[in-house]
Amino acid sequence: MAFIGRERELAVLNRMYRTNGFQMLVLYGRRRIGKTTLLNEFARDKDPIFYTGIESKDDENLRELGNVVFSHFSNGTGAVQFRSYSDLLAYMTACVKASDQAERHLIILDEYPYLAENASELASVLQREIDHEWSKLNIMLILCGSSITFMEEEVLGEKSPLYGRRTGQMDLLPFDYLTSARFVPDYTEEEKAVVYGITGGVPKYLAVLDPARTLKENIEDNFFSTAGYFYEEPKNLLRQEFRDISLYIAILNAIGNGSTQVGEISGKTGFDTSKVSQALRKLEAVRVIEREIPILNEKKKKLWQYVLRDGMFRFWFRFVQGGTAAIERGYGAQYARNMVFPHLHEYMGPVFEKICQEYTFRIGMEGHFGVMLTRVGKWRGNDPVKRCPADIDVVGINENEKTAVIGECKFKTEHFGKEEYETLLDRARLVAPYRVERYLVFALSGVTQWVKDQAEGDGRIEIISMKQLYTPV
To answer: Which pairing describes strands 105-110 and 49-52: parallel, antiparallel, or unpaired?
Structure first.
């Protein structure tokens, strides 16, 4: 498959590579996010020392890394066994010094946590070599890892021996909805949105889908078959992060089915709140969940909600978890057709809001709405006039000028009509003291003629089609 996306990240990597002298990049991100794929693409036309660490309790990483290093500098002839990382790094330094000083040396240590966790001295040895030798040499070092906590604390953290040595860092995130669509170029805009909704923009998950097959075929084969890639994926990922996953499965199931507060989750799972709170923090750290904090109501912690951050997890716990009995008996396709596909529009509601928020921010940064937006999110709170809970799907603000745009999103087969239109205009008062400059209507199935007439007579109203959402600026 062709390499898709990561243009900005590749540009950063190549810029650092072209900069003479020592460079050290720390690259990290959740599993399946495409770190190794990015590094392979970056190193494709270069001659790196590239080693991927493995889980091992002995000296296997030292032995194998030593083989890679020796082979690189000796053109594949002979063999040597290094007694320690100190000896190995000293050998690398000597070889670099003996080479043409104009030559660029690229060293990539992928899954660095696996090396460092079983060699407590490695970080200190690496720090010493950087300080005394490498800082004066033409070396680019990349440390890469999937353990976000380890990379943030043991590599980037103030207590790490490597603290202050980096010249760049890169936290690799999922693709946005526009880049995700490039994996299925012939799908309709609606189908592209669903693809984003079931993968969350995670590159590996997008690559699993076959663009030559229909969306429903891809969903049936990958989620609702015991042989499908996604059928065991959430549990496999959790097992890589946690020893006992039963608590985490229970919590994710509760969140996936609508429990958003610690107390609710505790009641649903049967675990006490302290244990649930601790587990939630860990799930946040590995980026499976997040706290959704409503824009303009950030200080009201009672309005914060835990949601599934990962789109694949969200889809899995919404639909697959409850269908395992049917799937394991070979009725996955029938289950999907009767219990999943009829509810896809409902499932896509929050996903569509996120897509519309991304679009609003992207267009707003260009000043398209007459307002340069600095932040975009969802507003949620209480309507003091009607004395009931209320929300606004899209709120973009300019904090300096106290101006805003607000929008309503409908991923339904029905047209966006008069009632939704009037509700949107009425809720402008909820974002005071921000002055609403533009009202945005996002509707999968378009709007009624009445709404079109209103928009034609009011320049503040903008109707945004699915095609517009998927048209790059």
So the answer is: parallel
| Residue 244 CA to its chain's centroid (Å) | 24
Contact 82, 94 (CB under 8 A): no
Positive/negative CA dihedral, 287, 364, 301, 401: positive
Is 58 domain-assigned?
yes
Phi, psi at 374, each rounded to 5°: -105, -25
Distance of alpha carbon 368 from alpha carbon 99, whole angstroms: 53
- Whether residue 457 sits in one domain with residue 334: no
Single residue among 171, 206, 223 that ends a domain in this structure: 171
Which of 319, 341, 363 terminates a domain? The answer is 341
Q: Where are the beta strands (DSSP E) in 261-372?
A: 289-292, 305-308
Cβ-count burial 114-153 (b if 16+ within 10 Å, e if not) = bbbbbbeebbebbbebbeebbeebbbbbbbbbbbbebbbe
Query: 106: which strand partners?
Result: 140
Q: Which CATH number does the domain housing residue 372 bear?
A: 3.40.1350.10
Residues 191 and 330 grouped into a single domain: yes
Domain holding 149: CATH number? 3.40.50.300
pTM for the structure as a whole = 0.94
Q: Judge whether 238 and 345 are in contact, CB under 8 Å.
A: no
* Structural domain of 413: 347-469
Whether 333 maps to a domain, the answer reads yes
Q: Which residues contact 75 (CB under 8 A, 6 or more apart)?
A: none
Tens digits of pLDDT across the chain (473 residues)? 689 999 999 999 999 999 999 999 999 999 999 999 999 999 999 999 999 999 987 789 999 999 999 999 988 766 788 999 999 999 999 999 999 888 999 999 999 999 999 898 999 999 999 999 999 999 999 999 999 999 999 999 999 999 999 999 999 999 999 999 999 999 999 999 999 999 999 999 999 999 999 999 999 999 999 999 999 999 999 999 998 999 999 999 999 999 999 999 999 999 999 999 999 999 999 999 999 999 999 999 999 999 999 999 999 999 999 999 999 999 999 999 999 999 999 999 999 999 999 999 999 988 888 889 999 999 999 999 999 999 999 999 999 999 999 999 999 999 999 999 999 999 999 999 999 999 999 999 999 999 999 999 998 999 999 999 999 86
How far, in Å, CA of 12 to CA of 22, rounded?
15
Q: What is the DSSP letter of 414?
A: S
Note whether 206 and 257 are same-domain residues: yes
